[in-house]
Structure formats: C-alpha cells, structure tokens
Fold these 2 entries.
Entry 1:
Amino acid sequence: SPARELTQNPLQKTWEPYDNGLPAGHSAQRGVCMTNCPTLIVMVGLPARGKTYISKKLTRYLNWIGVPTKEFNVGQYRRDLVKKYKSFEFFLPDNEEGLKIRKQCALAALNDVRQYLSEENGHVAVFDATNTTRERRETICKFGEENGYKTFFVESVCVDPEVIAANIVQVKLGSPDYVDCSNDEATEDFMKRIECYKNSYETLDETLDKDLSYIKIMDVGRSYLVNRVMDHIQSRIVYYLMNIHVTPRSIYLCRHGESELNLKGRIGGDPGLSVRGKEFAKSLAQFINEQNIKDLKVWTSQMKRTIQTAEALGVPYEQWKVLNEIDAGVCEEMTYEEIQENYPLEFALRDQDKYRYRYPKGESYEDLVQRLEPVIMELERQENVLVICHQAVMRCLLAYFLDKPAEQLPYLKCPLHTVLKLTPVAYG
Amino acid sequence: AWASYMTNSPTLIVMIGLPARGKTYMSKKLTRYLNWIGVPTKVFNLGVYRREAVKSYKSYDFFRHDNKEAMEIRKRCALVALEDVKAYLLEECGQIAVRFLCTKQFSMGVVFFVESVCDDPEVIAANILEVKVSSPDYPERHRENVMDDFLKRIECYKVTYQPLDPDAYDKDLSFIKVINVGQRFLVNRVQDYIQSKIVYYLMNIHVQPRTIYLCRHGESEYNLVGKIGGDSGLSPRGKQFSQALKKFIEEQEIVDLKVWTSQLKRTIQTAESLGVLYEQWKILNEIDAGVCEEMTYAEIEAKYPDEFAMRDQEKYLYRYPGGESYQDLVQRLEPVIMELERQGNVLVISHQAVMRCLLAYFLDKSADELPYLRCPLHTILKLTPVAYGCKVETITLNVEAVNTHRDKPSLNSLPSSQSPVRMRRNSFTPRARADTVKHPRHHSVGSKPLDLLGPFPSLE
C-alpha cells in the first residue's frame, strides 16, 4: 500500500499523515516526554518533612514541561470534611473516629486521582499524604495496578530538628488548622501531631521494599536512594528532585536594554542597544551594586543586546545560546504591520493560539519551553542569579516560577527596563 | 563549549569496586559522553600501567594482598598514574580525569567517587566472559582457566575491600554507588553541575543487549538539485528507499522497535512507508543553515565567500549566520542521546549533520572528525554495543542517490588565515571573555588553587 499523504498543520507547522482528509494516528509528537501510561507519585514521610513543598514544586515543573499533572493533598480533603480542627488528638493512633475520617479522605482523594488520570487526560497525579505505613502503601499500589498506573514513591526523611522547626514556622503556623492559635500553641500541637505518626512509621526499606520504584530523599537532599526507575518520566522526576534545594536565594529576571529594532517596532534580529538601552544597562549596574548580592551569577543569551547590557555590569557573565529570543523565522526583523500585510493568515493564527503557534521556519512558545528546560534545571541548582534575556524567553521562565498555564504564558507582562526579583517563600 | 562554562575546577572521578563490576565499562562510557558534550575528559586505567610495569602476567598471585613485591609495583604504578593525571589536568587543560583505584584516600581538586557494587554471580560471570577473557592478561588460555584465575583474583581484593559507607566513614564524600547494574543507586553530596550530569547519565544507561539503527531520510527533491536545508519532500528514488527500508526492517525482525524522526517532511515521509508508529522530535531537525538555507554550495561560495572559506577551516565550530554550528547541534541533541541510552531497539531517521553527531557519540569520534564522518543517503548504520564499545555494520540498500558528502579541502586550497572563527560571528564576543582561547587552568574564579608545588599525596 502506498505511503499516506502528509499535510502540514497550519498552526504548529508539523507534518501529519491524513486519510481521506482526516488526520490519521500513526505518529506521535515527542514533546518533552511521552508517558505511556499514567503515573501515580506517592509522597511518604512524617509531617513537616517537605512533602507538600515537593509535591507542589514537582507538579509545577511537570506542567511547565508539558506533562499534565495535578496534586491531591489529603490534608485538604480532611479540612473540607472536618470543618474545624481541634487538636493533635485527632491524629492519635487509637482515635477510631479520626482513623475512619482519615481513611475516608484518602479514598476520596484516590477516587479523584482515578478520575483525573483515567477520565480527564491527566498524565501524572501526585498523592500528597504521610503514607507512612506499609499497609497504606500496599493499598495504593493495588489501586495503581487495578487502574493501570505506574506507581513511584517519593519519601522525605529528615531528623534535623532545626529543619523541622523551620518548616513549621514557614508553612504550618499559617495553616487554616491553626488560625486561632498563637505561634507557641500551634508549634506545641504540631510537634505532638508528629509524635502520633512516629510509632507506626515504616520507612521505605532496601530489602522489604526492593520491588517498589522510589526515591528516598535524606536530609533535604544531602543524599538519595533511588530504586528501580522504570521509565523516562520517573528518570526526569528523579533528576529534578536531585537538583532542587531550599537554600534561600533570589532570582532576578530582566530583558536586555531597549534595542535599535525595538525603537523601530521590529521583532527579532540581532541589533545593539539604543541610547536609552545603554542608560538602562548603567542603571541596572547601579541597582545590582546596591542590592549587595552574594555570589551573583549573571547569564545572558548570545545576542548582542543582552551581552551589551551585561557588559555594563562589569562582572563575569555566561552566555547561553538557548536563552536567545524566539526565532520568528520568515517574520524576523519585520514589524507587526508588515507581518499582517505579508502573512495575514499567520498573523491571525498566532492570535488564535499564541502558545502553540510556530512561525514559518521559526519557533513556538512551546518550542521555547523545551529549549529552556536546561536553564530551569540549572537555575534550580544555583543560588543568586540574574538572567538578562528577551521578552518571550522571560515569559517562559516567569511562567515556570509563578506556575502560569500555557494559555496565560504568552501574555505575561515583561516590559523593557523592568527587573523582576523572585524569592522562594513557603510553597511558592 | 557551553558545558565547560559550567565547571569551575577540575574534577577527579574515582572508580571503586571489585574486579568485574563494570568499572572500565562505566569509565569509558562516561568519558565518551563527557567528551561528546564538550567536557575534556580522559581515563587513567591502573591495569594499563600495571601491564607496562610487569611485562608478562603470570597468575592471580600478583594480586594477593600479602604479596609485598607486587604491592610495591602496584603502588608505584598508582603514583605514576597520579602524576599523569596531574599533568593532564594542568598541562593538557583537561577538566576531568577518570581513573581506577581500589582505595579512596587522596585529595586533588574536586573528587567524585563512582562505586559499582554487585552481588549477582551471573552478572559477574557474564562480565568476565565478555571482557576479561579477551584481556591482554590472558592471551591464550582456556576459558575455564581464565574464569578460575579471575575469580581468585577477585577474592584477593575482597580481603581488603572497603565499600563506601554513607552513614559513617564516608558521609562527607561526594559519590554515587551503583548497585546491581543500575537497579538501585545511592547518591551522596552532589556538589556541582558536572556531578549532577554524571549521576543522571549513570542512572540512564543500561547493559541490556539492543541495536540502534541510524539512517538519513530518503533522497529529497532538494538533494537532487544540491540545495541544503529547507523542508522538501522525497524524490522518486527517496520513496524507493523508503520501501526498501521497510523491507529491511521487516527482515531484521526487531523486537519492540521504536522509530524516531525529525519534524521535517522528508524524514516523516520516510517513516510513513514503514507502516508503524513513530515519534517526531523537533530536536532531530537538520542543522539550521541560517541565511544559507535552501542554497547550493556553489551559490553560497558566490554570495558568501568568507563564510564558505571559514566553514572549511573549522567546520565543527563554524556557525552559519543566523543559524547553527555542529557544536550547537551536539548541545541540542543531548536529550536524544540520553533517551537513546534509556531505550532498547531504536531506528533514528534523521539528517546528515545530525547523524554525524549521533554517530560521533557512539563511535567516540573527536570534534575534528565529526563533521567529516561518512553518512551517505540510502545507507543504514547498525550499531550494537559490544564489550567496551560499539560494533558498526554498514548496510547499503541498493537504491541510487546523490552524494552529499564534502571532504575537508587540502591545506593548500584554504585561503590565508582570517580572524579565528570563534571571534567572528553574530554573537558579539566582547574583549572581556578570555575563554575563547584554551589556556592552562591553574585555578578559577571562586575555587581554591590547586597545590601545584605540594608533595604527591600518598596512597596511605
């Protein structure tokens, strides 16, 4: 039989086979990672070990790289069911009423997981609860098997009292559970809450749990035990978890100073800075000096305008080609009016789906995200960094840090001569 | 190279483990990967030094821990090796030196340990058969004798073997412990970017037998008229090739074959003929020739004679104006390599420059050789991992095609030197960057200087 004809998708410029005018299904787009079957990530650990922090961060990362992910926090289900939190006694191991409600919440959450993964096209679900007993984990494994999900455990183990105390201050004192308590009362109650779990805590064991797929994170990332990574997505998750840290730091994002082409309303190209752009570079240098940042790393793209901006700072900087502005292909160096005049269809398509729209012989925002992933990974590893980049690039990076979805990303406000200072706090 | 900006101080990777635990396998593979992504790396194998010192190996008795004379020889070999490591790091600008030791006491730059632990006797026996039987130590022996002698050799090491202990003695060291050929990993105190990449790489490689097939799209309409780049469809001969490819693949009877293409029409058309599921990767697209896209080489030479000349001078580093270089391509292709490592049987239908980059990774070709590797149309390269390397089989499907290969012109025909390629590109290179020229790295910003004049660290 002859090979099928190909047609080019006008929005994404990708070639797809078609049969009788309808797209046929022999090919798949390799975005960043293809998940063959849904994955259930199961958090494990005592309270105040960073499970929710990890859940939320991982969910944000996976969604950004294009893997539909959702987190399910069992504590939230409990708060919805039991309107008012009274005390740690709810969590006592012999509190029958408490146990019943907690099991009910876990099952409700699992039910929502099933709906998300099997009915709503979710790829990954993060099940955020203590899951500290082998029995509970076996229940979850069975649930995964019955539904055809791959299960991957993420355990956080930490015995450092300072870390635990800091966590309590950062995220527990402000919890809805303790809205009517003083800080001291809340801390005391929470410590007793942790005690409720300790006796029955069964950490993931190298021998007893040797057939499970998991990563055990020890002491906030000092060391890791990784067992039976099964597929690509689990490998990416492990890599990500091993690169994140909790050391306080700030990330500064800004664009290059105004360029000569900016002045003419033209996109792309490799122009130098305008007079005002050079002034901005000087102001930026002054601002950075005043901030007195410890060990600041400065990154630019390989385009003249970001490098000229960095030069004004008088400090070493690194050039990344992957930080280059989005490639506008045939529209490079045109004004929007010229694009509308010469490529009216393209102009219209871009407004329809700005995230997925790929310039002819150029890139889309979606392509940009894939290109920028190593930057995000290295930003996670680093501490204080200033990234001097471009409008579309900065929108992608910002969307990652502020958890903005694809629909909003291409419209995030990133004006010239504006610095965004990002500082991690609590869960965001 | 983009990756070398990331490493500030030299890294010493120290392999640890009993014999036949895959240390050399991992060393060589890791070295190949690091060199490919642009981090100059070299292996220093103690066994090689020992064979230099002791011309003919007699038996496992050499390795007994109570054999004083042999111990002296082995210690001296280790010191000579260390000297070479130092020389490589200081003089040859290498950033990573991978070497063997079965002890773990020395200090030099940033150290990262890779330990391989294995208690599965089948795996160990298989390793011995695969690589030890053909070792220079055992030139003409019977298999059983080799196996026997080698197992006794392992026993000699077991007496003094101290595995890395993350809970107590070694808790401050940076290391990865690979357990049972990658079933489990213990990772401790990863310090920097390079160590993080090493860990990720080691966690993605496997030793299951499999085959990787590399080929280009069938001949395209642009190939016929000598135009580079673009997004043209297959010529009639190209379509013929696709049919022949389909037949070839069917005859190979490959289990669970994955098929990957780029997002350019010509590779997709080629895959379509196979009638199987395939995945499109944008990062497998051909090198972007920028302003030279869709021109012939004659047109490029006429319109951009300087660019044309420069490309022949330094083809790996040369970046087309508004386009890419081979070096950029390697960076772009790194996720493909990582995923190829994870996968089993894969057929990658790509393009000339892309295929050269992938091939250079598998066959450990240098940056100088890479842009001149032969990847003709209508030819499949079948790669099978074997021992420490890769076996290549070239299969020409008998469908005629144009020749798109250009050799490096002889020195005489190159014009007199212009400014170095790296200095002259769209990317504006300011004077501040001294990195464009290789210089000996004595110390770098932010890290302690190496003790150049200090005594050799002892092994004790």
Entry 2:
Amino acid sequence: MNMFSSCMITALVILTLPIIMSSTKLYKNKLYPYYVKTATSYAFMISMIPTMMFIYSGQETIISNWHWMTIQTMKLSMSFKLDYFSMIFVPVALFVTWSIMEFSMWYMHSDPYINRFFKYLLLFLITMMVLVTANNMFQLFIGWEGVGIMSFLLIGWWYGRTDANTAALQAVLYNRIGDVGFIMTMAWFLLNLNTWDLQQIFITTNDNFNLPLLGLLLAATGKSAQFGLHPWLPSAMEGPTPVSALLHSSTMVVAGVFLLIRFHPLMEHNQTIQTLTLCLGAITTLFTAICALTQNDIKKIVAFSTSSQLGLMMVTIGINQPYLAFLHICTHAFFKAMLFMCSGSVIHSLNDEQDIRKMGGLFKVLPFTTTSLIIGSLALTGMPFLTGFYSKDLIIESANTSNTNAWALLITLVATSLTAAYSTRIMFFTLLGQPRFSPMILINENNPLLINSIKRLLIGSVFAGYIISHSITPTTIPQMTMPHYLKMTALAVTTLGFILALELNLTTQGLKFNYPSNYFKFSSLLGYYPTIMHRLTPKTSLTISQKSASMLLDSIWLENILPKSISYFQMKSSTLISNQKGLIKLYFLSFMLTMILSLLILNYHG
Amino acid sequence: MLKIIIPTIMLIPLTWMSKPNMIWINTTTYGLLISLISLSYLNQPNDNTLNSSLMFFSDSLSAPLLALTTWLLPLMLMASQHHLSKEPLTRKKLYISMLILLQLFLIMTFTASELIFFYILFEATLIPTLIIITRWGNQTERLNAGLYFLFYTLMGSLPLLVALLYIHNFMGSLNFLMIQYWIQPLPNSWSNIFLWLACMMAFMVKMPLYGLHLWLPKAHVEAPIAGSMVLAAVLLKLGGYGMMRITTLLNPLTNFMAYPFMMLSLWGMIMTSSICLRQTDLKSLIAYSSVSHMALVIVAVLIQTPWSYMGATALMIAHGLTSSMLFCLANSNYERIHSRTMILARGLQTLLPLMAAWWLLASLTNLALPPTINLIGELFVVMSSFSWSNITIILMGINIIITALYSLYMLITTQRGKYSHHIKNIKPSFTRENALMTLHLLPLLLLSLNPKIILGPIY
C-alpha cells in the first residue's frame, strides 16, 4: 500500500519539473509548451493509480513530511491530505488541465511569450493542487493566495490593455475581501483550538463555530464569486480563453466551494450557517442566471453560467449535501472547460469576434465544435445520462425533498430553468440560422491540437458523470424515495426552459427591437451592480482618501499643528521679545546723539 | 562584537586609500564579508543572551536586526553607484564614509547593553543620516526634509534622556541584562504616566506613529537612494527595537496606556494606506506604505503577547528588506525616467521585462503573499490583535485589502499598459541592478524556509 502516497507525490513532483526546468535552456526552446502538456498528462496518468486504489480500498492517508517550525505548542509542517475529496479532484483537475493546455498550444500559438504562458498555467494548476491536498490551514492558505495571484497574472496576460489590467485588479480585490475572512478563521482556530491541522480541528468539539464559519463563508464568497462579490468573474473574461477555461472549470472558482466542503464537518450541525449558505447560493444562482439571459458576449454568457452553477453548489452545501456539491464540481469541470474551449474555437475562427449576434449558422462550417458545444450545453442543463445529469438531478431532487427554506428552493428551480434558456440562446444564435459574420473569413477547425483536446473533454462530458458517481458511493445519503412529480421536477423545469427560450427566440427574431424595458435593462446591466458598486464606492473612498486622509489630515492639520505652528510661534515671539526692530536710522541717530553728548561732556570736563 | 565593529571602522581607511576605480568594489566586497560575520550571531544556542563584553550583547531580537544592518551596507553601496557617478572623487569617498559611519553607529545601537549608551548611539545615527539627506538629496526641499527629520526625532527623544536619568537614579543601573531582574512594577500615578510617555514617545516618533509621521515621507522623498534604503530598512526598526526593549521597564502601565496609541495606529494604518492609493509620487507611496506597515509593529509591541512580539520582529525584518527593495526599484526607474511621477513611467514591462519580474516579486512580498516572512509577520500581528479584541479584525482586514490594492496599483501603473514614447530610448537594466534586487530577494525567500531565526527572543 506504499504505492498510494508515493504515486501521489510522484504526480505532484512531475508537475513541478517544468517549473524547475524553466531556469535552464529548455525554457527558450519552442517545445516547452509541449513538455508542459506532457508533464501534465503524465501526472494525470500517475495520479490515476492511487485514485483507483482509493476507489478500491477507500483508504485515506495523511502524509506529513517537512517540519517547518514549531511555535510554542503549535507544530507547522508540510502535510498532504489524501482523502475522498483530494483523491477524486486531483485526476479530474489534471485531466481537464491537460486538455486545456493542448488547446492553448493551438489558441496561443502566435503569442511570443507562449512559454511563459504555459509556465503560468502550470503554476496556477500547482497552487490549486496545493490547495486541494493541504492538510493544514497554512498550506491551504498558500494555495489559496497562490491561486489568486496566478489568476491576477493570467487575467492580465495582455498587459497592454487597460481592460485586462482592470479585470485582473478586480479579481485580486474581490478575492482579497474573501481572504480577510480566511485570515480571521485562521486566527480564531489558533486562539480557540490551538491548531491549524484539519484533523485536529474536526475532532475538537466547540459549540459555537459561528464566527470561523462566517469567515470561511466570506472566503468562499470571494473566491467562488457569490452574490455581492461576484463581478470579478465575468470581468475575468478579459484574459485569454484558455485561462477562462481553466479558471472556470477546475481551478480557482471552485476553490471556495471546495473550502466549504473541506470544513463541512464543522458546518454539519450549524443551522445558521447552513441557512446563510443556502440563501446566498440561491440568490447567486438566480441573479447570475438572469444576467446571463441578455448578454451578447459568448464568453460572458458562459461565465455567468459558471457563476450560476457555483450558486447551485452553494445551495447543495446549504442543504447539507457536501458530497453532491463535490460531485457537481467534478462533473462541471468537464463540460464547462469544453464550453469555453468551444467558444474559444468559435472566437478564433471568426477573427476574435465574441458577439453572438454576429455569428449564426456555424453548424455547417464548424461541425465538430457545434457538436461539442451542443453536448456541453445539454450536459450543463442536466440532460439525462450526460455528465451534468448525475449531479444536477440529484441536487434538485434532494433540494426538493429537504424541508428547508422553500423560497430558496423555488429560486433555485427558477434558475435551473433559466440555465436551459440561456443555453438555448447560445446554441440558437451561434450555431443555427443564417450566417451573420463576414463572408471573407477562412474557417478551419481541423487542427489536431484543437480537435483532440475538445474530443477528450467531450468523452468526459458524456461519460464522466456516470463513472464518477457509480464508482464511489457518497457518504451522505441522498434521498432515495420521493413522489413521482418531484422526481420529474428537475427535468420538467429544464424542458420548460428549453421550449420557452426556443419559442421566444423563434417568434421574436423577426420583430423590431423596441425601446428596452426595465427588466431587460436590469438584466443586461447586470442588476446595476457594477454601475453602483464600481463607480460609487471607489469614487467615494478615493475622494475620502484624497480629501480627508491626504489633504485635510496630512497636509493641513498634522502639518499645521506641529511643525508649522511651532515655527510660527517661535518667529512671532522672537520678533515680539527682541528689542532689535531694524530701525537703523533711529539707532544711528541715538548713537550719534550719545557720541556728541559724551564728547561735549567729556570736553567740558577736560 | 568587536569583530564586527573594528572591521567596520577599518572600512573608512579602505575607502580613502583605495584606487579611484576600486572604491565601490573594495567597500562592497568588504562590507559583504562583514555581513557574513554577523550571520554567526543568528545562532543563539541557549535561552540567554550572548554577552560579548560589558558593553555589548546580542540576543535573538537584536541578532536579526544586526544581520539586516550589515547586509544593507553593501546593498546601499551598490545602489548609489549611478547616483554618485558624476561627483568628484573626494565627495564619493565622503559619502561612502558617511554610510560606513552610519552602519557603525547602528551596529553599536543594536548591541548596546546599557540604556544610556543605547540612547547616545540612537541620537548619533541622526548625524550621518542628516548629512546624507541634506548633502546628497536631489532637490532644494531636502533642507526642509532634513529639518523635519532632525527636529521630529530630536524633540521626541529628549524626554527619554530625562526619563533614563530618573530611572538610573532610582534603580542604580540601566543595563538591559540586569534591569529585567530588578524591575519593580510601576505604580499608577501621574508622574509615572509621564515617565511612560517620555520613554515611549522617542520610539513612537521614530517608528513613526501616525500623526508624528510627517518627517518620514519628506525624508524618504528627498533622500538619495542609500538614505531611503537605510531609513526604511533599519532606522525605523530602531523604534520597534527600542520599544520592545523598554516596555519591560514600564509594566503594568502599558496595559492601559496603550489604548490611545493602539487606536491611533489602527486608525493611522488605514489612513496612510488609503493615502497610498492616491499617491502619484512613487517614493512617497513607498514611504507611506512603510508608515502603514510600521503601525502594525506598534500595535504588536503594545499588545505585548509572545505571538505579537514574534510577529513584530518578523515584520520588521521582512519590511526592512521589502521596502528597501521597493526603493531600489523606484530609484532604477528614477535613473531612467528622471522623475518620480508614476504616470511618466508606464508600461515598462515591455522594455525591461526582467525588471518587471523584480517589481512583481517586490509587490507580492509587500502585500504579504504566503509563505513569505511578510505574511508570517502580518499574520501573527493580526492574530494577536484579534485575540486582544475581536473587532480589530475589521480594521486589519480593511488594511489588508488596501495594502493589496496599492501594491498592485503601483505594479500596474509602472509596469503594465502601453509605454509612452519618451521612454523609448532608456538604458537597459544593468547587472548591478539585477544583482541588487536578487540580494534583496534572496534573504526574503531563504528566511521563508526557516522563519524561526527572526521570530525574536520569545520564540
């Protein structure tokens, strides 16, 4: 059984090899992207061995190796936790990243810094692996922050563009707000439990976990772009498409949900936090689904759909089903990465055109991309026996049968139906109908790098859900029996969404576009959120820092109270006290008078 | 301790007797050798202090600061080569001698075992710094800055002299090593409150505390590069070091005297970091970020728990290296653009990609990316303040967010975006500059591997 940990460590070490190589001459080589891709694929294959063993035996392991430091009674060492979550997630993430890397070899082939791009992608993946396998909060935090910083670098990859820089800064800012929650939780655990090791945290019993769990929820809200801290996720579309694919599928955004799943033993019996999570997730999933409805940028629609799915995962955690949420993370990774790669293929083929109104009729020119896009969208909506079905259907079912907040559940159902609506919209506008793009474009999707990478994920999107959900029995038992109509709800609302959206699109296509209604404006302006939060808040805070902190306090008050007033009073008092008034004439006159007087007197005397 | 002090003194004849083309190389190499000796003090084999003589000692609080001081001299010499390239030879030698003199005073300050001796050397460091700022600064405002620098610190520290004489009078000794065994708890009275203020204000001004910080941005902006470096890296830390040493005398008065200063620091760190968001002047931004980071150290020292002391010590070392590196980077921009205004130095990543990497790393350490020692310091401080009062996490959290914002704002403004046309024909970055950045960054990274040597005596 020693193979278990050693294989896992081998897989992780293989990932770091291209990073180490980057200081050698190989980094200047044109084959460097190929090496990175191969390393990732090898890491995937090797990591499958311990995963198989885990599936077979169900054995959890903790590896502790390098002792970092001991502070008083707290020991900090590098340790990896190889349990259900990390053992399943690592191969999934590696598989998806492998495909994305192959895809980016095609997508970024003309970039002069493609080697650096691959290094960043790999670092991004490594930090995610650190996050997933960490067994103590400090190591988790290293991965957590590392993911944030790598996303900053990758979103701002085209650093000449102002939008890319703004989006990158936005991502860091929103994540940083979440980090405050994480740091607070770390501080709380240290003070009250005196440990950062996960297994030690879980075995201690403390009645009141509200504060640290709130911190974790804040952290997850920031990282997983839940309502309130969500705007960075659609803005992150400024990055290259492979980055969006990686960011939205298996790394970064699921980290927040993963954190809550990790700390689920603490949440299990805490109703307050569960309700909060449920409501937060429900609001997010509905709000972002509404926003997705009216977007015209293909990447933005997919991005909002990610946000909506993340809300669904939070809902699942809120109804106390972390294993289902985790299953959804894994299945979601496949088809979401593929959706992004398909839209990347479309965008690249149409000369960087992202507007779905200028596409149309692509099913004839891009047959393979069309197939995968449709399968991906169907999997996303939870079409039976595709990957999404195995997690999404279960989630809706267990939500329907649980006796929690009915409003939250209703909202989730509406959002599920909207998922089908915006998926229809993508398919309808990009793939079907007449072409609306310029006829001069040479379209060719027959590149093995593109085809193979999408094909691999396509197979994943069809079968992964079945394989994952059938090889592993979830530990929390989902609801097994339910009335017939509840069983059919998920499917019914999805079908309803499909049909409605299709009919609406068909009937309104020829109509003249009237002055948009307020509902439309709400959706297309993203609920006025960026307008309010991204203009008002920075403006006020920057004005305050300029006017009050910098001008009023620093340049006027502090300057006047101490140095200026002291020098002023010194000057005043010295001129006041001094008997030298500068009256030269008078002085000389008196001097002369005295001289004359004295001369006279002395002469007289003499 | 003489094995550091005498070689440092011998650096002066070395400077004056070197051949004109060898002055930089000789002094830098020799300075690096001295810093190697100082590393041996990092090994503190037992709980007691290493007493070199009656006058000098070192423990695990002063040893990292000592190592930082000696490490910084060669870096300062490397950084100011270009700045002084047009000066006549005598003035170059004078400049180097001033830096050496400053290092000499600093070494003795950090290792002095007697409070009066410490005080004299603490004041003595003002002289070479003042000369460096007012003689080699770039603009006429340097005279005003020198005035601010001198008078703020002098006014703050004069009461300390009186307080020390008084303490010596009733205690009979001012030796650090003995005082900690003889000390009686101070009763709560008005005169003792003034004693507390007199003892602490000197260091608070030096740190600087928000409200008394005006001299710092001015001094930083006007000082030549070496002056900024040593000011940010070591001179501010004198304040933290002094506070940690002297609070042992002032118990239990600190428990309630700390409140106004804690409030001022917590408030000030948010104020100063929000000032950073609006700075257009690169050096001024870095200076204000120093004020904000030092406010964390003040909070940590005033809380007086083992974790907060560890955090304060780690943060001082981390900030010393980071801010010094940021000043070096700002200077390398200044030497090319001839302006400190950030907006004039946009898009440098296109032209100087390696420099952009240094900028990135420096900004990341400044915003405390794990697992650097900056994070360890900040994390411990946040934790101890959280345990002191849960509410402080809000202020600390805001500060963490703003710190990340202005660090990346600085990075994006200078490195990202389109470059402007007037910087098209700038010089490429020199090996000297790259080596300088590496020498700043290497200790940061290596210390992250084993942070316990800079966690201070309580660890």
